[in-house]
Amino acid sequence: MFLGIDLGTSAVKAVLVDETGTVQATASHALPISHPEPRWSEQDPEDWWQAAQSSIEQLLNAAKAQDISPRRIAAIGLSGQMHGATVLDKADRVLRPAILWNDGRSDAQCREMEAWPDFRETTGNLAMPGFTAPKLLWLREHEPAIFERIAKVLLPKDYLRLRLTGEYGTDVSDAAGTLWLNIKERRWSQSMLDACGLPQEAMPSLHEGSAVSGHLSASLAERWGMRRVPVAAGGGDNAAGAVGVGIVRHGQAMLSLGTSGVYFAVSDGYRARPEDAVHSFCHALPDTWHLMSVMLNAASCLDFTASLGGYPDVAAMLADAERVGLRHDGPIFLPYLSGERTPHNDVHACGAFTGLRVDSTRADLANATLEGVGLGLLDGIEAVDATGLQVDDITVIGGGSRSAYWMQMLADIIGRPLTLRVGGEVGAALGAARLAHLAAEPGANIDEVCRMPDIVAVREPDASRHAYLRERRQPKFRALYRQLAAMYRADDAQA
User: Fold this and answer.
1) Contact at 8 Å (CB) between 109 and 179?
2) CATH number assigned to the domain with residue range 248-422+462-495, chosen from the 4 options 3.40.50.410, 3.30.540.10, 3.40.640.10, 3.30.420.40
3) Letter string b/e over residues 449-477, b meaning 16 or more CB atoms within 10 A of that residue's CB
4) 158 is an active site residue
5) Active site residue: 237, 276, 303, 379, which one?
6) Binding site residues for substrate, as ranges?
7) pTM attached to this predicted model
């Protein structure tokens, strides 16, 4: 058995799979999030650890109910939200709440980084507030007393690793999102660390995602009735999610519909297109890279509109949207509730409903939200296509994939088949479990362990709907962003 743990933004999820890859049990524990200032987003790492323990213990109890002994677990794998800055002192005490991936306070520091010599050539990326390095520059400027006490900087899942094993470690897929990694060479960049005022000793050790990074501590092993099993390095949530649905070879791609929206395409060599805010990262498997476009708000927009419209939950909103259908003259929604990454790299971007009429209903707002997220995803997919890495068939994972209505709308917008597979809703935790399997059995065949799960459904695009959405709706969507962008920036500057 292999245990996968995924530290998400809204919850910690755990999954137990057997050697055939079959899921035997799942568990989760919700997480709080704090927004103490505009554009700030933080969490307490202690909440992560408490939620992780709860999820693991729920999972082990569920396994015991099926007569599965914890001693059958052969390895643990980790996945987690990327980019979060978790800063520790010499005694491993957390110095302040972790600054998360969707935090937008460090745009001034990003402008500073873009002027560094060889910055884009080394990192393969634009400097964005979501990444880790500008957060540390912000701390150096605004919280210098805390910055001076920093002994280690860990990414979120790697804080769980420290609590599980006592080891400081990370994997190259997660480290790629810090802006301290030389992406092409898969190593820490001394020049980028020097520019941030951090010694290499402040960084965790680097591993490939399928490598062993430590072993479960004796005290936790005894408490949970487990052996001191190896803990795999794991992967950032998107890389692990890709492993979970078998997106591991050149030319394969997935669309992840979680809090954020991510298009992820695998390459067997290093590629980059920072001018369009495409992320160029290492994959969680050796000698593999990936390109990624990121929307900061995807399924979270559905939560926003469901609350705004007074729906009891997102499911009720989706049912109402499907009953009414997408009107050709309905409102347009810009999904930039907390800024945007690909392709705009605009921390000041805001969401908006436009084109409202006297007969507009909350169902129209719901459909506009579904469409607006889809059009934003299309922008990102086309940015990745521009690198020359174009994929015809896309696997979809994440909670947003549960809606057949939305999946068909997205297929019509993107103009390519969307494939749903078994286990897509637990993709990152499943991927973490698969990386644990590879760590426990170094000679295992990657294609067998990381095979694509069975197909649940394929949503084929409607050619006429795709043409309409590309020719009529997408130009309006893009024009509205351009028209409002200057106003957003001016308002934010005055504030």
Assistant:
1) no
2) 3.30.420.40
3) bbebbeeeeebebeeebbeebbeebbeeb
4) no
5) 237
6) 82-83
7) 0.88
Superfamily of domain 2-238, CATH level 4: ATPase, nucleotide binding domain (3.30.420.40)
pLDDT tens string, the chain, 495 residues long: the values are 999 999 999 999 999 999 998 999 999 999 999 999 988 999 999 999 999 999 999 999 999 999 999 999 999 999 999 999 999 999 999 999 999 998 989 999 999 999 999 999 999 999 999 999 999 999 999 999 999 999 999 999 999 999 999 999 999 999 999 999 999 999 999 999 999 999 999 999 999 999 999 999 999 999 999 999 999 999 999 899 999 999 999 999 999 898 889 999 999 899 999 998 999 999 999 999 999 999 989 999 999 999 999 999 999 999 999 999 999 889 999 999 988 989 998 888 999 999 999 999 999 999 999 999 999 999 999 999 999 998 988 999 877 888 999 999 999 999 999 999 876 666 799 999 999 999 999 999 999 999 998 899 999 999 999 999 988 889 999 999 999 887 776 665 555
CA angle in degrees (0–180, nearest 5) for 57-259-278: 120
What is the CA angle 223-229-230, rounded to 5? 135
The radius of gyration computed from the CA coordinates of the chain, to the nearest angstrom, equals 22
* Residue 107: φ, ψ to 5°: -65, -35
SS3 of 272, please? coil
156-157-162-164 Cα dihedral, nearest 10 degrees: 140
